[in-house]
Amino acid sequence: MGLFNVTHPAFFLLTGIPGLESSHSWLSGPLCVMYAVALGGNTVILQAVRVEPSLHEPMYYFLSMLSFSDVAISMATLPTVLRTFCLNARNITFDACLIQMFLIHFFSMMESGILLAMSFDRYVAICDPLRYATVLTTEVIAAMGLGAAARSFITLLPLPFLIKRLPICRSNVLSHSYCLHPDMMRLACADISINSIYGLFVLVSTFGMDLFFIFLSYVLILRSVMATASREERLKALNTCVSHILAVLAFYVPMIGVSTVHRFGKHVPCYIHVLMSNVYLFVPPVLNPLIYSAKTKEIRRAIFRVFHHIKI
C-alpha cells in the first residue's frame, strides 16, 4: 500500500471572499441579481430561437448552444455559491465537489468550442456566402455542437480520477465558493506534477487552440472584408461580427487572467484570485444575452414577440 493510505476529507469547506466575510449577506443580493439575469436572459434567448421561424438559421442555432452552456455553468455554481453567501453553509462532500468541478470545467470548455464554431459560421458567411447554406446544414451544426460536448467530456474525464488518487491532508478549505481542479490539487500532500502538466495540456490544447483558430478566422474575415470595394458593405459585414467578438472577449479575457494568476501569481493577494475566478464564471453568462439582445435586432424582435405572446 506504500508509505501511506490515500486519504480524502469527508467534505471540503468553501470560502466566499476572504476578508469580506461580514459583507457576505450584502453580496448575496448582487449575486442573486446576476444569476437572475444570466438564467432569465439566456432562457429567453433559447425560447426565442425555438419559437421564432426567422431565427432558424445557423448563427442563431449556435447562439442557442452558447445560451445553453451559460445556463449550465450558472446552474453548476449556483447551489454552493448561494449557500456560502446567503446561508454561510460552507461544507460540500468530497464526491459532490468532484462532480461540480467536472461540470464547471466541462461546460466552460464546451462554451469555448461553441465560440470557435460561431467564428467558423461568421467566416463562411462573409468569405464564402454563396456556399453558406450548403456548408452549414442542420446536420453539420448538430455535429459541431455534439463534437464540442464530446471533446469536453473525453478531455476532462481523467480530472476527477487524477484528484481521487491524491492524498488530500494539508487542509480541507478551498479558496472559492465552488470547486475547481487547480484549487483542489493544491491541498494534496504529494507530488501534483501529473495534475499540473495535464491541466496545462488541457488548457493549451483546447482553450489555447480554440482562441488561435478564432483569431485566424478573423484575420481571414478582415482580409476578405478589406477587399470589398464599398465602405458600406465593409461596415455591414463587420457589424455582423461585433456581438461574437464581444462574447469572445467576455469569455477569454477573464479566463486568461485567471490562468495567469493561478500559475504565476503566487504572491498575489488571495482575494484577487477569488475575484478574478468569480468574474470568469459569472460575467460571460450575464453579458452574452445582453450583448446579443443589444446588438442583434432579430433577437430583439423575437424576444419582444415572446413577451407579447406571454402577455396575451
UniProtKB/TrEMBL annotation:
InterPro entries per the UniProt record, alphabetical: GPCR_Rhodpsn, GPCR_Rhodpsn_7TM, Olfact_rcpt, OR51/52/56-like
Principal location listed in the UniProt entry: membrane
Domain G-protein coupled receptors family 1 profile, chain residue ranges per copy: 41-292
GO cellular component, one term: plasma membrane
One Pfam family named in its UniProt record: 7tm_4
Domain of life from the UniProt record: Eukaryota
Protein topology in the membrane: Multi-pass membrane protein
Keyword flag Nucleotide-binding: no
Gene3D superfamilies: Rhodopsin 7-helix transmembrane proteins (1.20.1070.10)
Membrane spanning residue stretches: 59-82, 94-120, 140-163, 211-229, 241-259, 271-291
Protein name in the entry: Olfactory receptor
Organism expressing this protein natively: Pan troglodytes (Chimpanzee)
